What does this fold into?
Amino acid sequence: MRLILLGPPGAGKGTQAKMLDEKFRRPQVSTGNILRKSIQNGTEIGNRAKIFMDAGKLVPDDVVIGLIKERIVEEDCRAGFILDGFPRTIVQAERLTETLDEMDLSIDAVVDIEVEGEELLGRLTGRSTCIDCGAMFHEMSRPPLKASVCDSCEGELCQREDDKEDTIKKRLEVYEKETAPLKEYYRKQGNLKTVQGSGSVEDIFSRVCAVVS
Ligand code: AMP
It folds into this structure.
């Protein structure tokens, strides 16, 4: 199973990818999480990426393509993976197709999670993320059991720098301009599946499972 989760920031890609990972035992591969870990570890890539991320912009294609190429050849990705937040540009999608072609592999489905712009803003403000495992919480819809502590791994919860209102607006603009055209790219390839991203996390997950299994 090789999947791509598409959708604007706040659509719930990370949450759904984590649930798919647990159900199908295929790793969630999130470029956002990889980049945040690099920032935390103070690596050169992390320091370079942070400037773009804090501004709500995309990290340059060559950086994220390099990270993905390294990640998907790891042992745990052999039987498949769930891409969360990659690709985000047509160039990234083309390079992914080329890389998989070289490995004689292909993507089974691209799941686009659709959510209205208004709702996205509310979902992203008030969100907190675990520094260690990437699990996400929300002060209204999914508060952690203990304040600032992750329910899954007891890591520390933080508000992401890029979950502040101005940066969120920028990220939504960037999504429309750079990432939304991927829907057409994958529709033409015949593997785009669209699911409604409203309702409970479990409802959305049932819809996602229905189109991937
Ligand atoms: P995410 O956790 O997926 O919302 O990503 C957070 C931020 O990381 C994005 O706003 C971008 O700055 C950066 N990022 C993550 N994935 C990519 C990607 N595929 N291409 C470029 N930038 C990315």
Q: What stands out?
A: The pocket of adenosine monophosphate is lined by residues 9, 31-32, 35, 52-53, 57-59, 64, 85-88, 92, 162, 171 (CB under 6 Å).
